[in-house]
């Protein structure tokens, strides 16, 4: 018997938000999330829910300050990365759903094309598509060049 339930991985993120129902709707529209289940209170507040993006499961709940569950300030929550087939289309979909563009999709020296967004609930998201393989040596050289150019 596995100690990890089927459908889960070793690490499962759990988000705390100010409006769980709205956040679930946003993640469906922005990232193509699939809601697995939700446990609302009679008031509609989300005690616990789970959704998937790709093969990854994420837990979510509304704030419960008395229990230490407090949503982050906008842009100050955790950061997530999602690999997608078409980063440009996925980025536009997320923006259309209400995400704030931070960095438009750009070809990066490590071989990904990626863009960064903030969601309306305090979390940051990087969307990426791997477009080319880069050797460790080439990546280290490019990183050094990039760092030197950004420290001036």
From TrEMBL:
Superkingdom, natural source: Bacteria
PROSITE patterns on file: VOC
VOC domain sequence ranges: 7-130
CDD domains according to UniProt: VOC_like
InterPro entries registered for this protein in UniProt: Glyas_Bleomycin-R_OHBP_Dase, Glyas_Fos-R_dOase_dom, VOC_core
Signal peptide as annotated in the record: none
Protein name, entry field: VOC family protein
Source organism of the structure: Luteolibacter arcticus
């Amino acid at each position: 018997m596995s100690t990890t339930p089927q459908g889960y991985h070793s690490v499962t993120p759990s988000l705390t938000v100010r409006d769980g129902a709205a956040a679930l709707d946003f993640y469906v529209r922005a990232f193509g999330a699939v809601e697995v289940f939700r446990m609302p209170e009679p008031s509609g507040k989300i005690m616990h829910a789970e959704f998937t993006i790709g093969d990854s499961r994420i837990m979510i709940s509304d704030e419960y300050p008395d229990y230490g569950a407090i949503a982050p300030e906008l842009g100050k929550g955790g950061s997530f990365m999602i690999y997608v087939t078409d980063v440009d289309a996925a980025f536009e979909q997320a923006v259309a759903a209400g995400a704030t563009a931070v960095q438009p999709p750009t070809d990066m020296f490590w071989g990904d094309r990626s863009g960064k967004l903030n969601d309306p609930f305090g979390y940051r998201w990087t969307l990426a598509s791997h477009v080319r393989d880069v050797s460790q040596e080439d990546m280290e050289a490019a990183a050094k060049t990039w760092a030197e150019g950004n420290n001036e």
